[in-house]
Amino acid sequence: QKSGNSIITSSIAGKFGFFLRSAYSASKHALHGYYESLLLEEEKNNIKVTIVCPGKINTPISISALTEDGTAHGEMDHNQATGMPVEECVRQILKATIKNKKEVLIGNKEILAAKIKRFSPALFWKIIRKQKAT
Fold this sequence. Notes:
alpha/beta
């Protein structure tokens, strides 16, 4: 049809690594590389790509997360419990898609880390080392 928009759900972890998230972060970095390339390759066909990078969103994902022995974590982590409501996240995704944004960071203060890393890497590394994993 020579048009369309793919909405890719990545994560703030696609912008930088984090404690206990090495494989997860690597997979999100891979999404960025793949879809940034696809964005360039399909631009001529009027196919747009929006990469969504949510931070802490109030979803039950941590309940279903697996522990090291493969059993369900079964608890709501603090980061999800205190995260942005899903409805607000969806509203921001739709707004970014309508505006044909190539990438959107969604969340609360945690998305500032991506901006700090870009403009003040030394400060970023100082801050990120002090963060808790859950």
